[in-house]
Amino acid sequence: MVKSCEGKQSIKKAQEPQKNNSSKKNKNFLESLIGIAATLPGIVTPAQAQKAISTTPKAEAFYSRYSENHFKYKVDSYATNLLFPLSPKWEFELGALREVMTGASVSIYLPNALVNPIHQGSLIPGTSPVPALVLVETLTGQSIIETRSQVSGRANYYLPDGRHSFEGGYSTESDFESFFGNLNSEWYFNKKNTILFAGFGYAYNISRPTHRYFKYAYNLFHGTNLSSNRGKYNTERFNLGIKQDINKNFYVQQNIELILNNGDLFDPYKAISWIGPNTLNWPNALHLGPIFTGSDRRPHREITGAFVTSLVHYIPCFNSALHFNYRYAANSWNIHSNTFELSYYQPFLKSWEITPKVRYYTQDRASFYALSFYTEPSPLYPYAKKLRKNKASNDYRLSNFGSIGYDITLSKFFQSPNIKLSATFGFAKNAVGYGWTKNKGPKNPSNNFHQKYVAVNLDSDFPQKLSFKKEKECSSIYKEGEISVQPLIISFTGLTFGRKHEDTKFTPLAPPSPAFLPVSKFNMYRNQRGYGLNDVHRNGLGYDFQLGYFFQDNMEVFTDLGFVNEKGLKEPGVVNPLCFKFKDRTTYRTNFGIRHYFDTEIIFTPFVGFMGGVEWQPKTKAGVYAYNPFDIRQFATPGPKLGTFEIFKAGNLFNGALLTGLDYRFTETFAVSLSTGLYYYQRNKAKTLRIPGQVPVKISDNKNKFIVPVSISLKIIM
Amino acid sequence: MNKKIFYIFTVSSLLLVGCVNVEPWERENLAKGDMQLVPEALRNAFTTHVNFSREGTEGGYGLEGGGCGCN
C-alpha cells in the first residue's frame, strides 16, 4: 500500500522531538518504516498499545447471530466503527451498534401446583418433598422482542510518547438507557518497551421496566397497583495497566480494574418466592397459596475488582501468535470468578488465517442468592435460605456455575483496498457442574444451557484517494446554477427530547371502576424496519427524495418528498379491560427549505439550513379485544374481538426543522451527505373512543414534539 | 491460591520494567496485528458483552461503554 507524502510527514512530525543526532535520526527512520509496515495487510495497526495515528480512514463492520437453547433466546447484532484522521495529532472514531433480541427469560421459580396448567419450565428436583411444591422455572413467556441501539464517538490525541482518548456514548432500548464516557491515557517508556495505561469511565443508567403485560392481572387479583420498579444507577470504572516487552517476540500485560456500581441494582423482571408470613413488608408481595412472591432486591452498591494477566508470544518458525489470558475477579456480593482464555493465530496459504480459541469460566454464588427463601423455616422447602431485608435474588447469573467455550475464526486478507474478512463459529456450555464450587441444595436449572454464535467481521482501509485535504483551496464546492438530486435519503432517529417512550395517552372519561387503571400511556407503533434509536411514534426510518437548485455559489433551495413507515404494536390491557392491535401506518410529508454551505480547508463541507412543510397522516385504526387476565404473555390469547375502531382521524400536520450537516463531494457528479437537525412535529388532535358497553376514553397524541434524526444520502450534482 | 497467582504475575511484570531493551528495528514481530491484545475490536466487544450478560462478574479488559438491561 502506498502512503501519501502527507501521511509520512505526519509520522515524522510526531517524532520530531527525538531528532537530536544522526543515530536517532536513523532510528526514527526505522520507526517510521515500522509504523508504515504496521498498516500493511495482516499487520494491522495495534489496537492496545503503541498505536500510530492513522493516515487514511478505516472501517470495521460486524454481524453476529447468537442463540441459546434453553429459552429460545436469539440476538442479532450489527455493529460498525469508522475512523477518520483529522490532523497529524487527532483522529476521530464513530461507532454504532444495533441489537435485536427475541426470546424469554426466567422470571421466578414457583411451586408446580401454582404454575400448572400453564407450565412453562422444567421441574427442579430436590426443592421440596411435596410434589405439588416442587419448584418450576417460570418464564416471562416467549415475548421479549427488543432492540438496543448504541452510538459512540471517540477522539484520540497522539503525543510523541503517548496517547489520550476521550469517548462518549449513548445506549437505548425500550426499557433501559445508558449514558457513558471514558477517558484513557497511555504513556510509553523505556524505548516503548514499557507502556503504562490509566483510565476512568462513568456511566449513568436508567431502567424503565415494562410490566404492562401483567399490570392489569396484578391489579385484578391483588386490588392495588403494581408499584414501579424503575431504577437508576451509576457505574464508575478505574483502570490501571502495564505492558512490558520481554523480548522481540514476547510481552506481558497486566490490567487492574475497579468497578463501582451504585444505585438500584435489582433486576426488575425477576421475582423471588418464599414460605412464611410477609414479616419484612417486601415490595410487591403477592400471596399465592402457601407462598409469597415479591420483587428481586439487591444491595445498592457493588464493588468489583478484576485482575487480568495477558501473555502474548510470537512463534517465528510458524509465523503464528499465541495469546493467554487469566482473570481473577471478585465483588462485594461475595462472587469470585476465574477465567482462562487461550487463542492461537495461525496464517496459512499467504492470505488466510485460522484462529482457534478456548475459554473456561467459573464463579461462586452471591451471598444473597437462593432458589427459594423462608421467613419461618419449613420442612416443605428444605434448602430455602432465610429472607433478609432488601437482599434476595434467584438470578441464575448470581449462582455458582462454570462455562466452557470454544470458537474458531477463519480470516481472508484482500489487497487494494486492504480488507480483512473473518467468520467465527462459537459454542459455549454453561453448567453448575462445570464450576469449582460444590453445590449446596438443588442446582439452578437455568444455568444448564448452551450458547452458539456465528459472526462475520469486515475490517478495511479506505483507498488512498480519500485524502482529507481539499485539492484546490478557497474554491467553492457548489457553483451557481448547479442542480442537486438526492434520490433516497434514509433518516434514522437520534435523540428524542424528553426521551418519553409512550406516545399515546388513554384517559377514561368516566370514574374508573376498581378494575380500571387511571390514565395510561402506550406506544401504538414500532418502526417497521427496526431502525432508529427509539421505537416510538414517528421516530422510525424515513425515506425522502430531494431536489435542490443553487441560486448562487454555496446557496441552495430545495424541496423534499418523503414518507415514514410505522408498524402497529399489540398492546394487552391498554385501556382496561381492553386489548389493542394497532394497524400499520404510513405518513407522507413534503417540505421546502434553504441551505448554505461553508468552504473549509478540509474536504468536508459543513452546511446549515432550515425547512418547513406539511405531512399527511391517514386514519389510525386498531382492532379492539376484550382483556383476558390469564394472558400474561404478549397478546398470545386475547379475549373476543369487539371490533375495529378509529383511533386518530386523517389530517394534515405542520412540521419544520433546523438543519446542519456535512457534505463530501468526492467527484464532480457525486457527493455524500450526512445531516442532522432539530425537527418539530405538530401533535395529532385528541379523539374520544366510544366502544359500546365500555367507558369512553379520550385519546391524545403524547409523542415528543422535537426529535434529532440523522440522515445519510448520496447526492447527484448536474 | 488465586491471590498468590495474581501477586506473582504483578510483581514479576513490574520487576521486568527497565530490564528489557527491544530496539525499534527489532519490533517487527511485536507490531504485527496478531500480536495485539485485541486484534478485532468489534468481535471482542461482542464476546465481552455476551459474557457480561450471562455471568456474575465483569471487567479487567479495559474500559468499555454502553449498558444493557440484559434479561
Walkthrough of the structure:
Residues 1-49 and 528-539 of chain A have low confidence and may be disordered. The longest helix of chain A is centred in the first third of the chain and has 16 residues, at 22-37. The two termini of chain A are 34 Å apart. With 718 residues, chain A is mainly beta. Chain A has two domains: 7-105 and 140-208 and 230-265 and 298-365 and 400-461, Beta Barrel (Porin); 483-717, Porin (Beta Barrel). Chain B is mostly helical. Chain B has helices at 2-15, 41-54. The longest helix of chain B is centred in the N-terminal third of the chain and has 14 residues, at 2-15. Chain B is flat, with a radius of gyration of 17 Å. The model of chain B has no long low-confidence stretch (mean pLDDT 77). At the A-B interface, helix 2, strand 1, strand 2, strand 3 and strand 6 of A face helix 1 and helix 2 of B.
Summary keywords:
heterodimer; A: 718 residues; mainly beta; Porin; 2 domains; 16-stranded antiparallel barrel; 8-stranded antiparallel barrel; flat; B: 71 residues; mainly alpha
* Largest interface summary: A-B, 129 and 57 residues
Q: Fraction of residues of chain B in helices? A: 25-40%
CATH topology of the largest domain in chain A: Porin
Number of strands of chain B: 0
The parts of chain B where pLDDT drops under 50 for at least 5 residues are none
According to CATH, what is the class of the largest domain in chain A? Mainly Beta
Kindly state the number of beta strands of chain A.
Answer: 41
* Structural classification of chain A: mainly beta
The amount of helix of chain A comes to under 10%
Which helices and strands, and how do they pair?
The complex is a heterodimer of chains A (718) and B (71).
Chain A lengths: L4 H10 L7 H16 L20 E11 L5 E12 L4 E14 L2 E6 H4 L19 E5 L4 E16 L2 E12 L2 E14 L4 E14 L4 H11 L8 E17 L2 E14 L7 E5 L10 E3 L2 E5 L5 E15 L4 E12 L4 E13 L3 E12 L9 E2 L10 E2 L14 E14 L4 E13 L17 E13 L21 E10 L11 E5 L11 E3 L2 E3 L14 E11 L2 E14 L1 E2 L6 E5 L2 E13 L6 E14 L2 E7 L14 E8 L2 E15 L4 E12 L5 E3 L7 E5 L4 E2 L2 E8 L1
Parallel strand pairs in A: 12-19, 19-20
Antiparallel strand pairs in A: 1-2, 1-23, 2-3, 3-6, 4-5, 6-7, 7-8, 8-9, 9-10, 10-11, 11-15, 12-14, 13-14, 15-16, 16-17, 17-18, 18-21, 21-22, 22-23, 24-28, 24-41, 25-26, 25-39, 27-29, 28-29, 29-32, 30-31, 31-34, 32-33, 33-36, 34-35, 36-37, 37-40, 37-41, 38-39
Chain B lengths: L1 H14 L25 H14 L17
